[in-house]
Write a structure and sequence with these properties.
The structure holds 2 protein chains of 2 kinds.
Chain A lengths: L13 H11 L4 E7 L2 E6 H18 L6 E5 L4 H12 L3 E5 L5 H11 L3 E4 L2 H10 L8 E4 L13 E3 H10 L1 H14 L5 E6 L9 E5 H14 L7 E3 L7 H14 L2 E4 L6 H8 L3 E3 L2 H16 L3 H22 L6 H22 L6 E4 L6 H9 L4 E7 L4 E5 L12 E2 L4 E4 L4 E5 L6 E2 L3 H7 L6 E9 L6 E6 L4 E2 L5 E2 L1 H9 L4 E7 L6 E7 L1 H10 L7 H5 L2 H19 L9 E6 L19 H7 L1 H8 L4 E9 L5 E9 L1 E2 L5 H8 L1
Parallel strand pairs in A: 1-11, 3-4, 3-5, 5-6, 6-7, 10-11, 12-13, 13-14, 25-26
Antiparallel strand pairs in A: 1-2, 8-9, 9-19, 14-15, 15-16, 17-18, 18-20, 20-21, 22-23, 24-25, 26-29, 27-28
Chain B lengths: L7 E2 L5 E2 L2 E12 L2 E12 L3 E5 L6 H8 L7 E6 L2 E2 L5 H6 L2 E4 L11 H7 L9 H6 L3 H19 L15 H14 L4 E5 L7 H18 L2 E5 L3 H7 L2 E6 L2 E6 L1 H5 L2 H8 L5
Parallel strand pairs in B: 5-10, 5-11, 8-9, 9-10
Antiparallel strand pairs in B: 1-2, 3-4, 3-6, 6-7, 11-12
Helix pairs in contact in B: 3-6, 5-6
The chains are: A alpha/beta, B alpha/beta.
């Protein structure tokens, strides 16, 4: 590698950081979790004790150095402790998506050869028992919530609290072993293994070292001047690299407090109660929040609606400029201050975003209107571009240089180069070690000099030096006439409409582009209710003629805006259909992080795709669906093919001349 | 037949104790109508006991006899081995018998939390003056009671609607809140009057799981009335079958399923 930074002050591992925090910030809260209606909290010194007890308990169960420990559950302090406890005994934590079906879990657990698993409750225990026979190396399972598990065979099944108790009891026997193992950890030892969601093919295990995690956390914390006083709400999947960096990497580096919600359903209430200062959410969360606000404003009294509209217009005009510290006239500042009193302040409070100092969105492109809405309220929302292989950070937007169409400048310590075909490459201290047991993929992704291929095509904006991502390099194709086909770009434009949840655009090697569309049940459902349109199911609403008309209007608007862009004018959508089911990770149509799997979709709905190109008006189809518990069923429907008006590119050019 | 004093172990390993409640030759009349005619059966410690039967069979009346709402004209009720004199429902509640209703009986305008807190009324001893000042004993009591209530809320997974007024909840959730209120009183016997009426399949599955978990986790004895035969046969340890106020069957789900009188009552029989 070109450069491999060394640890400062012996802080070469997460357990070492925990030790420092327990000494330096002993009484400060490290974790909070709402349980029984009250925020329970653990200080850094409590955390160190909990982690030690668990680590001793793991030694007692016979965990060896280099073992893999699967961690499956929602964000709870116990799971964060489990990760650090695993690290301190020299084992490797492998957090996994708790909503994955049993056979997806089987693949990952078998691939890493996990000997132990720490899981949430009966649901996960049952899933693992179901696949246990296929896992040759698997031995012990530890669960947190004992409910319903009393009668299970406990030879190889242990309650979390009991493992800790046994650990405490065996302190004399194992304390020296534990110390020896934690002391051995250095910058090169493995910190965590995270499985990528895999838009194509099987998930790959990304091995991240302590150097990767700690360096990425250190430089990104400096970038945004994060300190021990931050509050974050941990609600994103623990198996995702972002959560690992925010809730472990940066939290341990800075010594800030991680708050865990009471249950997934109470997320919004908990967010409001905690009022995080540092907040991270994928665009989908911001979209949902905005949709909810807009739906509720539709139902508000005329005066309130007027007040909201009046001051949101002010905010749109001057809000982002004020946030960026640009000069704004006194009159506008005064209106904005009044708006803050009447509208923005209370609204931010309701959204739980009053105290947000640094907010990020990443993972997908965010709609410019959504992004501007939050910025105009005075929330410092920024974009970043990253991936698991980079320990998140590739580019970030610095304060005051936020734009909705770029993803920012290279993060501190990151070098970026653009290949001739437009693909973005990077190299940084956060660059992953390897794909576990997959040297071919490692070699094809990371070259000898440490440059990693992102798989995304992009370019640096000549005006401001920010990176712009166009599309997944793999997805960018050519249309039959040889013009560039960038599906993601078109899909994002479509998805910016609240009524459209998901869109998949086709056109590679074809004459014209077409699209599959998923409606957003919340937004469209609410609209249907207000317009007295009755519906009994998603399928029925999706096929309603008025819904199709509304979607058609959106598609045509997108076509008009595409026509203005000479590079992409030929990607206008000629025909579309609204799918009869929501694309779902359980059916393999999306990844667990909700990215569409193009290949799977075009194979699975081959008949529908054919109908989009053979001139038919409607098509009957029957689709297999998988329920959450793995059972299968099928749904059938007759779908209408809708023609959308396209703007003739040639005509436009003539008009322009 | 089983010995009254000793318990047994079910197929799935649950320990069922001795008889806690025994109904002996109960007859209940409303004027000339005989709602219950000479019925005897018992309920054992820790079991799930179902009462089934066609409409108008007298199931709810039977439950109301157990809960003390009706006093039968004939027959005796033994609770924990002693004869129970005629009682008011609140006295029965004080003995540790809680119930839910066929038609939801919650305080619609109050939040879920307040509704569930009313289940603790039996445990609140501080006088109205102390309650109003909310000092000393009253404050301590409220904190203790709230702790119990929060455990129940956690158990039934209704944290997200803790502060929501009951009137805004869908039917299935209201049923769950009613169960929460009954559980908050930490009953030794829980009476459920059609806990799954009007629910969809998913809600029924959830409710069944909660009933089993309550029984498993707290060892609560449960007597329930239910129409959904699938649910009854899956959940209960023993079943009493009633028809026209009379008992026509009593035993394990398998025994009842194969009982000719029961089959006739449910499927109808040709009268010559």
């Amino acid at each position: 590698m070109a450069h491999s930074p060394q640890a400062v002050d012996g802080l070469a591992s997460v357990p070492a950081l925990l030790h420092r925090n327990a000494t330096q910030f002993g009484d400060k809260p490290a974790y909070r979790e709402k349980e029984f209606g009250i925020w329970q909290s653990w200080s850094w010194s409590d955390t160190a004790k909990e982690v030690e007890a668990l680590a001793l308990g793991l030694l007692n169960l016979g965990v060896n150095e280099g073992d893999f420990i699967a961690i499956i559950g929602r964000n709870r302090p116990y799971f964060y402790w489990s990760m650090v406890a695993a690290q301190s005994v020299g084992a490797v934590p492998v957090p996994m998506y708790q909503d994955a079906a049993a056979d997806e879990m089987a693949y990952v657990m078998d691939h890493c050869g996990a000997r132990f698993a720490i899981v949430q409750d009966q649901e996960q225990v049952d899933k693992i028992i179901e696949i246990q026979d296929k896992l040759t190396e698997f031995e012990h399972m530890i669960y947190i919530d004992p409910r319903g598990l009393r009668k299970y065979d406990h030879h190889k099944l242990h309650q979390f609290a009991h493992v800790q108790e046994q650990g405490r009891a065996a302190r004399d026997e194992f304390a020296s072993d534990l110390k020896a193992r934690s002391d051995k950890l250095d910058y090169d030892s493995t910190c965590v293994m995270l499985y990528t969601s895999g838009t194509t093919g099987r998930p790959k295990g990304v091995v991240l070292s302590n150097r990767n995690i700690i360096e990425a956390s250190r430089s990104s914390s400096d970038f945004d001047t994060l300190g021990p006083g931050e509050e974050v709400l941990a609600y994103l999947p623990m198996a995702w690299v972002g959560d690992f960096i925010f809730s472990i990497g940066q939290a341990y580096w800075c010594g800030f407090c991680v708050n865990c919600p009471e249950s997934p359903d109470t997320m919004m209430t908990d967010l409001r109660e905690i009022g995080p200062t540092y907040y991270f959410a994928p665009p989908r969360v911001f979209e949902t929040q905005l949709t909810n606000v807009m739906i509720r404003m539709e139902d508000a009294s005329p005066f309130k609606k007027w007040l909201f509209d009046r001051y949101m217009a002010v905010a749109r005009k001057v809000g982002p400029a004020i946030l960026d510290g640009k000069s704004v006239s006194f009159g506008d500042r005064l209106s904005y201050a009044l708006g803050n009193l009447f509208v923005y302040g209370p609204l931010k409070n309701t959204l739980g975003l009053s105290r947000v100092r640094v907010g990020y969105t990443a993972g997908e492109a965010i709609g410019p209107e959504i992004f501007e809405f939050y910025r105009s309220l005075g929330i410092n929302l920024k974009q970043l571009y990253g991936q698991t292989e980079a320990s998140v950070f590739i580019t970030v937007q610095p304060d005051g240089e936020v734009r909705n169409d770029t993803v920012g400048v290279p993060a501190p310590g990151v070098e970026i180069k653009i290949a001739d075909n437009g693909e973005v490459f990077y190299r940084s201290p956060g660059t992953f070690e390897e794909y576990y047991k997959n040297p071919e993929s490692t070699a094809s992704t990371k070259d000898a000099e440490g440059w990693v291929a992102t798989g995304d095509a992009g370019f640096f904006d000549p005006d401001n030096g920010h990176l712009r991502i166009i599309d997944r390099a793999k997805d960018v194709g050519k249309m039959a006439d040889g013009a560039m086909f960038a599906p993601k770009y078109v899909e994002n434009k479509l998805k910016f409409y609240p009524n459209i949840l998901e869109a998949v655009v086709f056109g590679n090697q074809r004459e014209e582009c077409t699209a599959f569309i998923n409606i957003d049940l919340t937004a469209v459902g609410n609209w249907a209710e207000r317009n007295n349109i009755g519906y009994a199911s998603y399928q029925e609403l999706a096929g309603h003629p008025q819904v199709l008309d509304a979607i058609k209007v959106h598609v045509e608007e997108v076509n008009r805006s595409l026509a203005d862009d000479p590079m992409l004018a030929h990607c206008q959508v000629h025909r579309f259909l609204v799918l009869h089911k929501e694309l779902d990770a359980d059916d393999g149509e999306m990844t667990r992080t909700r990215k569409v799997r193009r290949g799977v979709i075009s194979d699975k709905f081959e008949d529908l795709l054919g109908a989009l190109y053979d001139g038919s008006d409607e098509i009957y189809t029957n689709t297999e669906v998988t329920y959450e518990d793995g059972r299968k069923g099928s749904i059938s429907a007759t779908l209408k093919i809708v023609e959308a008006a396209v703007v003739s590119v040639a005509a436009q050019q003539v008009a322009a001349e | 037949m089983l010995d009254a004093s000793e318990g047994y172990t079910t197929e799935d390993g649950r320990k069922i104790g001795g008889v806690v409640m025994e109904m002996k030759n109960i007859t209940l009349r409303f004027g000339g109508v005989v709602a219950i005619k000479d019925i005897s059966f018992d309920i054992r410690q820790g079991e799930i006991r179902a009462i089934i039967g066609p409409n108008g069979a007298g199931k709810s009346s039977m439950l109301n006899v157990i809960s003390g709402f009706y006093n039968p004209q004939e027959g005796e009720v033994y609770y924990q081995g002693t004869l129970r004199p005629p009682m008011k429902p609140y006295q029965v509640a004080q003995q540790g018998i809680a119930r839910t209703f066929q038609n939801i009986a919650l305080f619609e305008g109050m939040s879920v939390l307040d509704n569930v807190m009313t289940g603790r009324i039996r445990q609140m001893k501080a006088g109205p003056f102390a309650q109003a000042l909310w000092k000393g004993k009253a404050e301590r009591e409220e904190v203790e009671n709230r702790a119990v209530v929060e455990k129940v809320i956690d158990f039934l997974e209704i944290q997200a609607i803790r502060k929501t007024p009951v009137s805004r909840l869908p039917y299935g959730l209201k049923k769950r809140v009613e169960l929460a209120r009954a559980l908050a009183s930490e009953p030794s016997i829980l009476l459920l009057d059609e806990p799954m009426a009007g629910m969809n399949v998913e809600e029924k599955e959830d409710m069944s799981r909660f009933i089993l978990d309550v029984n498993d986790e707290f060892g609560t004895t449960i007597a329930l009335i239910e129409h959904d035969m699938g649910v009854v046969m899956d959940l209960s340890d023993r079943v009493v079958v009633m028809d026209y106020g009379q008992k026509i069957g009593d035993g394990t789900p398998d025994e009842v399923r194969n009982n000719q009188a029961v089959i006739d009552a449910y499927l109808g029989v040709a009268h010559d």
